[in-house]
Amino acid sequence: MAPHPEFSAQTLSVLAAMCEQPSQWQHGYALAKQTGLKSGTLYPILIRLADRGLVEARWQDEPQPGRPRRHLYRLTAEGLASATGALASAAQPAARAGVRRTRAPARPAPAGGGVVAGVVRIDASG
């Protein structure tokens, strides 16, 4: 199969969560809690990953009484390989550049009072 284009940061977070237990079936609610993604972002990602053959999906066999069945997801072998490669690639550019985020010192308050928040800047000095 052809290589997959770059994944979004949100998709990488889903893949990273699924890589923690790649052969384990996981439901969307648990993935949402792990990644911090809202359902309107998470489920379309899972559907796209399933359409690409990177994730397999199935319905829960035996739901808890009085509860609806859940959709379960897990990485395929191709999904695990793609996720591992994509996560490694995503980690390399920042490591190569030696870029780190730092917080600039807070500026003094204006003469009239009030608070000025610190500004986040990029420090590439190493």
Describe this structure in words.
This protein is of the alpha+beta class and 126 residues long. It has a single domain, classed as Winged helix-like DNA-binding domain superfamily/Winged helix DNA-binding domain (Arc Repressor Mutant, subunit A, Orthogonal Bundle). Helix content is 42%, strand content 16%. The protein contains four helices and five strands. The strands form two sheets. The chain has a three-stranded antiparallel β-sheet with strand order 1-3-2. The chain has a two-stranded antiparallel ribbon with strand order 4-5.
Overall pLDDT metric: 79
Q: What Rg do the Cα atoms give?
A: 20 Å
Task: Name the CATH class.
Answer: Mainly Alpha
Query: What form results from the Cα inertia axes?
Result: globular
Helix content: 40-55%
Order of H and E elements = HEHHEEHEE
Distance between the termini: 39 Å
Counting structural domains, the number is 1
Main-sheet strand order equals 1-3-2
> Approximately how much beta-strand content do the residues carry?
15-25%
The computed structural class is alpha+beta
How many strands, what sense, and barrel or not for the largest sheet? 3 strands, antiparallel
